[in-house]
Design a protein that fits this description.
single chain, 295 residues, alpha/beta, 6-stranded mixed beta sheet, 5-stranded mixed beta sheet, 7 helices, 27% helix
Length: 295
Amino acid sequence: MSKKEVNVGVKIVILPTAAKATYAGAESKRIVESVENNVLRPSKEPYHKVHVAVKHRPNGAPEYLVAFMLREYTYTVDIARIDVDAKYAAKSVAFVDYEDIDESSVAVPEVPAKAPRPGRKVEMVFGTPVPEIPTAKAAVEYAYNLALQLGYRAVKLLGKSASVANYKKYLTADLKVFGNVGHGYTGGIVLFDGNLTSVWFNRLANTPVSPAVVYFNSCQVFNPPLQPAVMGAGARTFIGGKVNLLIGPSEEVFKCFLTKTLKEKKKMAASLKDCEKAKYPLANAHGLSGDSGKF
């Protein structure tokens, strides 16, 4: 093992797909080895975790793997495509842009979320699929506690609870605020069990995300196709990273923004600008669209 390898022991999660619910035994081992040998071990970029989806041919044989690679120091997702043979041996490997993958073909199967309890209308939701990152968990805990202190009915979603089904449920539940801290890319955000993408937002009818202020503390999400998809689904305001956001400083902007807008009643655009200036090393790393006034 080379001393230059920086991704030894990185967790690899194989996602369920429409073609197959689970990958176990020798098949799981071959998928993991293909990712380790072809993208993780050769990389000099350190990663936190990798989610892998398998694209199958009509006859059930594997065609290629899509590896969503969550960086260690930023909330960036790098995407690798590994074309494979029937036993998952790599035939070709390429890092690709979001536009170069057919994400619908490797989408996580729909799993209905549990309905909320009657009479307990939730107003604010804050979540992270990576609570093992201390600053991510701390940011969600801070936002959740702030909401409760101000008299709002709030929910926090940590780890397994930060699922695709739960995010879909709450984003269409007439919220005031939805905040996520985690990895993202131009087309979506990575959750515990899969990705929430622009495809889903674009399919929504009657702008059900209204009137929520949606804040994705994730890299590259304030770009097409995700940003216009979220706004098109009815978000009152959408905030997210224009570029790759640093883990640590970006959460400080997230917390500062919520404090200024919810507690101090400051205008949203001015708050984001002030918080970025005070808490982040670079200007114009975050974007805001929609209503920029008071919360």
